[in-house]
Write a structure and sequence with these properties.
Layout (H helix, E strand, L loop, with lengths): L1 E4 H17 L3 H13 L3 H20 L9 E9 L2 E4 L4 H13 L28 E7 L4 E8 L1 H4 L3 E4 L6 H8 L11 E9 L1 H11 L6 H7 L4 H14 L14 E11 L5 E7 L5 E6 L28 E4 L5 H6 L5 E10 L2 H12 L12 E3 L27 H7 L4 E4 L5 H10 L2 E4 L5 H5 L2 E8 L8 E15 L6 H16 L5
Parallel strand pairs: 1-3, 2-4, 7-8, 11-12, 12-13, 13-14, 14-15
Antiparallel strand pairs: 2-5, 5-10, 6-9, 7-9, 12-17, 15-17, 16-17
Length: 506
């Protein structure tokens, strides 16, 4: 029988959430570096370069990989010869670890958890509670897995009850294109098959904690039917041509993970959960000797990729002199470097603006002929103007697009991933444009922000409206004023190219 103090568990969880906010797992970096080397689409290659550069900057600066520092998932396998020296529950102990980790003064993380999903949706302020899963196993140690899951990828989780004779491969290939790019590929797909509905979902999430080993698997060849299935799905999903950030390209997934368990004869539950470009998890063991020791990777492990603004391949845009005529001149897929002043806003701000307009009230910010950036930044530390400030998923703002463009006179929007049909039609009708920043490059983007001040709805915290002054902020024209979307044209083009490069495996 060993005893684990509550302080050791709390400290280990606190250290783990800090660790995973700063460091990508090395297996992810290594596989992404290989994807960068073989990528043939310049736009996708540029996006991967931003993600790799952002990753190195975060490791050097000890700041979050993504502004969405996620909901914390804690998986504990507790040996039955272990006792905890505490009067508190495991949920309370893990929540205290999350609280301490997310409010660390040297690297405060963004609090995203709401205590009431239906009504008040009040932010808990410390990112608690975590999602805790506990399994009792033989032994006298505690094995822990701690992960942070961003909303963009979590929102793309899928579940289906297939018939026993239905094809898993067919369902995956039908479903992945429907997920769009809001989960920030390149990443990985975790699939759970069997059990019951909730067990399949849990297996899909747990599978994402496994090391990425597709390169090694392809090198040695499959040794089981499950590995054959993983390889088949890996090739066929990448053959869809979705590519990095949905821009089209050779790599959509770096790996496919599958977990299964027995199920009812009439059932075939299948869950699929993506992990994004901010793949974040760490494993550790507690044996009663103290808190876990987490070893940072050496900076030499990162590839020699250093993204910088490309003034030859990108158009420089003065946001303080932006006109509708210039917006109309932008071409789909064109790379821009933005300098000047932009506004920010996301879900809560848009909803409040809508409610104010419905009541006949004036809004506190002038949006006419301005550009809005969908972002909820991390709080700054030390000499930072703003903390990591990458884009959030733009489709959540689709319902407000016509209001912002029509009633308030907004010129353009910046976010990540695709826009829906109604938003694209509104963009076309108003001669606007939608620009895409790279999800997974939050710290890199923040380096382009020179000043930041709250100009509206300060009570919303990270969802307040800011005015940023930016210099050489990198974006891509994702929807032009004619309503042409690169998230439609890019994957379609690269799906055809991939079919010509390598025939799809049988």
């Amino acid at each position: 029988m060993i005893t684990i103090s509550e302080d050791d568990l709390i400290q280990s969880v606190a250290d783990a959430v800090q660790f995973i906010s700063i460091y990508h797992p090395l297996d992810y970096i290594q596989h992404l570096a290989r994807a960068y080397e073989r990528e043939q689409n310049p736009a996708a290659r540029d996006a991967i370069a931003q993600i790799l550069t952002n990753s190195r900057l975060c490791a050097e600066g000890h700041r979050p990989i993504c502004q969405d520092t996620g909901v914390v998932n804690v998986f504990l396998k507790i040996g039955m010869n272990v006792r905890f020296d505490t009067q508190r529950s495991l949920q309370e102990l893990c929540d205290e670890g999350v609280r301490q980790g997310y409010t660390h003064p040297d690297n405060p993380l963004r609090a995203s958890m709401l205590d009431d999903p239906l009504f008040s949706r009040r932010n808990t302020g410390d990112n608690t509670p975590c999602m805790l899963h506990v399994e009792l196993v033989p032994g006298d140690i505690v094995q822990a897995q701690v992960a942070a899951k961003g909303g963009g990828s979590e929102n793309k989780s899928k579940f289906v009850m297939l018939n026993p004779s239905d094809s898993l491969v067919d369902w995956v290939l039908k479903t992945v294109p429907q997920m769009g790019a809001g989960w920030c590929p390149p990443g990985m797909l975790g699939i759970g098959v069997g059990g019951t509905a909730e067990r399949a979902m849990l297996m899909a999430k747990q599978s994402l904690m496994q090391d990425i080993d597709m390169y090694e698997l392809l090198q040695r060849g499959p040794q089981s039917r499950l590995e054959e299935l993983r390889i088949e799905l890996y090739h066929k999903v990448n053959a869809l041509g979705i590519g990095a950030q949905g821009l089209g390209g050779l790599t959509t997934v770096l790996d496919i993970k599958i977990m299964s368990c027995p199920t009812h004869a009439a059932s075939k539950p299948v869950a699929m959960i993506p992990n994004c470009a901010a793949t974040r998890h760490v494993h550790f063991t507690l044996d009663g000797s103290g808190p876990a020791a987490l070893m940072p990777p050496a900076l030499s492990e990162w590839p020699d990729v250093h993204w910088t603004p490309d003034y030859k391949a990108s158009k420089q845009v003065d946001m303080d002199r932006l006109t509708r005529e210039e917006v109309a001149s932008w071409q789909p897929g064109q790379r821009l470097l933005l300098s000047g002043h932009i506004l920010t806003g996301r879900d809560a701000a848009h909803k409040r603006i809508q409610e104010m307009l419905q009541r006949g009230e004036s809004v506190p910010v002038e949006f006419r002929d301005r550009v809005i950036y969908y972002v909820g930044p991390v709080n700054p530390v030390r000499d930072e103007v703003v903390g990591p400030a990458g884009p959030t998923t733009s489709t959540r703002m689709d319902a407000f697009t016509d209001m912002m463009l029509g009633e308030l006179g907004l010129l353009a929007m910046i976010g990540k991933a695709e826009r829906g049909p109604e938003a694209i039609e509104s963009i076309r009708r108003h001669g606007s444009a939608y620009l895409m920043a790279v999800g997974g490059s939050a710290y890199l983007v923040s380096k382009a922000i020179r000043t930041a001040r709250v100009v509206g709805f300060e009570d919303l915290g990270m969802e307040a409206i800011y005015e940023f002054e930016v210099r050489d902020m990198p974006v891509t024209v994702a929807v032009d004023s004619q309503g042409v979307s690169v998230h439609e044209t890019g994957p379609r083009e690269w799906r055809q190219r991939i079919a010509q490069i390598v025939p799809a495996p049988a």
